[in-house]
Amino acid sequence: MSGMTLLVSDPDRYHDVYSNGFARIAMKETVLQEISQYFDEHVMTKLTGAFPAEDQFNLLGVGVGEGHHEQHFLKTLGSHFSSIMNVAVDRNEHLLESFKINACGSTPDEKSHRDMQWFNGTLQQFFDESPLANCKYNLISAIYSMHHVGDIETTFTRLASMVKDNGVIIIVLSESTLVEETLLQNTWLPASYGTHEKLTKEKVITFAKQRGYTIDVRKMNIKWDLTDLFEEKSELGDKLVDSLTSVAHFRRTVPAEKLNELISFWRSFCSNGEDGRLYAPADDVIITAST
Ligand SMILES: C[S@@+](CC[C@H](N)C(=O)[O-])C[C@H]1O[C@@H](n2cnc3c(N)ncnc32)[C@H](O)[C@@H]1O
User: Fold this and answer.
1) Does residue 8's CB lie within 6 angstroms of at least one atom of ligand 1?
2) pLDDT, tens digit, 9 for 90 and up, residues 154-172
3) What domains does the chain contain, in order, with CATH numbers?
4) Are β-strands 5-6 and 83-90 bridged in parallel, bridged antiparallel, or unpaired?
5) SS3 sequence, 64-90?
6) 101, 180, 232, 246: most buried, per Cβ within 10 A?
7) What does each C-alpha distance from 144 to 64, 82, 174 come to in angstroms?
8) 256/251 Cα distance (integer angstroms)
9) pLDDT tens across 229-266, in order?
10) What are 284's strand-pairing partners?
11) CB of 91 shorter than 6 A to ligand 1
12) How far is the CA of 100 from the centre of ligand 1 (A)?
């Protein structure tokens, strides 16, 4: 079907959909809390056991967006490691700009020296163009970005080659059945990856195990409030439709009959909450790979 623009190809709409749409329904505060707690209790134990506090600590963030998670990682790391270099990669300049503003506003722990490096471009461009792609990292984070950055096998293999011995890769994925099935069953969507694709979670775990990594998997109990998706005149609903289909301005571009099919399909995933709103499970998972 022609006339559809991939959401990532429209940076302004992407920013709006992500920050003012998806972020509003995705229990972002709970997600931040759960990932932060997991990081502080599990990942920090590994990192502080593996690396001396006075060594330079390198963190690479892939698809950082506004960097809420990386900011938390930096804060906790700064309480132990004396010198930290953070490299933040994201293709969306608006989101990266918010990260920069937030990072400037926060006061780093006085004991720790922080060097922030920004790369506005795709991960592939970072690999191809940045000398920082030749560094070794103690920690690599890809929080809700692995689906977007390219072929999982190539990406994981390349990232794994950039981790120091005893380093950690932390990946958070939203394996929402609703999104997976939307893209699997509707091959006319430009972001559809065909009908036989394996879930990213299984791929990541398989590749990491094949490369000798120890894997830890933690499920998060996150639900999306999709009530507005079913309101015809809701702007928030328009943004949610865009984020579920990965198409910019989907409601304006696609024939009503296609939209209605998808709306009924999405409705079948939802259940009523006690507050009368409609919720679908997000099936979010934290995966860490370490040697
Ligand atoms: C779902 S958002 C997650 C943002 C952030 N990590 C978070 O958890 O809030 C995905 C991010 O990946 C970025 N992104 C998408 N494709 C990318 C690519 N090829 N290379 C680098 N970043 C990319 C987007 O701009 C966006 O900021």
Assistant:
1) yes
2) 898 899 999 999 999 999 9
3) 5-290 (3.40.50.150)
4) unpaired
5) CCCCHHHHHHHHHHHCCCCEEEEEEEE
6) 246
7) 9, 28, 7
8) 8
9) 999 899 999 999 999 999 999 999 999 999 999 999 99
10) 174
11) yes
12) 15
